[in-house]
Design goal:
By secondary structure, the chain is α+β, with helices and mostly antiparallel strands. The protein folds into two domains: 145 residues, Fructose-1,6-Bisphosphatase, subunit A, domain 1 (Fructose-1,6-Bisphosphatase, Chain A, domain 1, 2-Layer Sandwich), CATH 3.30.540; 119 residues, D-Maltodextrin-Binding Protein, domain 2, CATH 3.40.190.80. Helix 1 runs antiparallel to helix 2 and helix 5 packs parallel to helix 6. The termini are close together.
Length: 279
């Protein structure tokens, strides 16, 4: 748990937060409008790997986010999925301009703009634009989680047979392991979905819509903002340490506390990837 900042530090974080919210909403709405007006042909899709794509809009969105945040906070570092950067300076931004690009390409609105701010070796700010609902989720460390300014909390579901999980899958991991996880959840009576965006899955847990998000391997830009928002909404969140996430990525688990003990087997599964910390 990050230490509390002095009040002047909170004021500085509030300025960072407001800017990140405005940028995420503006860029997210631009991406929506572009997709609707240009269609698939206008996206200029290229493949980075198997089922791993990038579009013209991903690049434009990241440039716009970097430029806006850089003008507002020129002393901050910047690390983005598409153009890289450095986790340097007293604080730095970690950005995924479109988390869920495959969905975006196909016209599915389960994608988001993910912006996190790290300072003092801890996640301080998380902002996610939820394209499906045109909403902005946000959090400052130790100050709660919000949906368009309205406080949110995780669900109070206690029975697995009433629970809903969202799973992610990475081709960096074994598909048989993914199948084993879905079988275990099925046997417990937990329903599940796969929506294709870690950022959106995590804010669904934060908002009490889902009771679990689990993915065996994510990159730092996919997960940092959503993980903070989920934790600030009361979720039990488990991630590798920041240096591990920066260099290798790793698993993420976020669940309602009411089900955390029954889902402890997920941490055992994820331990094959790397050591997890409870955030």
């Amino acid at each position: 748990m990050p230490e509390l900042l002095a009040e002047d530090g909170i004021g500085d974080l509030q300025r960072h937060l407001v800017c990140a919210q405005d940028v995420a909403r503006t860029v997210g709405r631009y991406a929506l409008t572009f997709r609707e007006s240009s269609g698939l042909d206008g996206l200029h899709v290229t493949a980075k790997g198997v089922q791993d794509f990038v579009t013209l809009v991903d690049r434009r969105a990241e440039e716009a986010i970097r430029d806006s945040l850089g003008k507002a906070f020129p002393e901050d570092g910047f690390l983005g999925e598409e153009f890289g950067g450095a986790a340097s300076g007293n604080g730095y931004w970690v950005v995924d301009p479109i988390d869920g690009t495959s969905n975006y390409i196909r016209g599915l609105r389960h994608w988001g703009v993910s912006i996190a701010y790290v300072a003092g070796g801890a996640i301080r700010i998380g902002v996610v634009f939820d394209a499906a609902n045109d909403r902005v989720y946000s959090a400052i460390a130790d100050r709660g989680a919000f949906r368009d300014g309205i406080p949110i909390r995780v669900s109070q579901v206690r029975e697995p047979t009433e629970a809903l999980s969202i799973l992610g899958y990475s081709r960096r991991t074994d598909f048989g392991d993914y199948q084993a996880t879905t079988r275990r959840l099925h046997e417990m009576g937990i329903d599940y979905r796969r929506i294709g965006s870690a950022a959106v899955g995590l804010v669904r847990v934060a908002d009490g819509i889902a009771d679990l998000y689990y993915e065996r391997h994510v990159n730092i830009w996919d997960v940092l903002a959503g993980a903070l928002i989920a934790r600030e909404a009361g979720a039990v969140v488990q991630l590798p340490c920041l240096p591990e996430l920066l260099t290798r990525g790793g698993p993420v688990i976020a669940s309602t506390p009411c089900l955390a003990k029954q889902l402890a087997f997920l941490r055992e599964e994820a331990a094959a990837e790397c050591q997890l910390l409870e955030w």
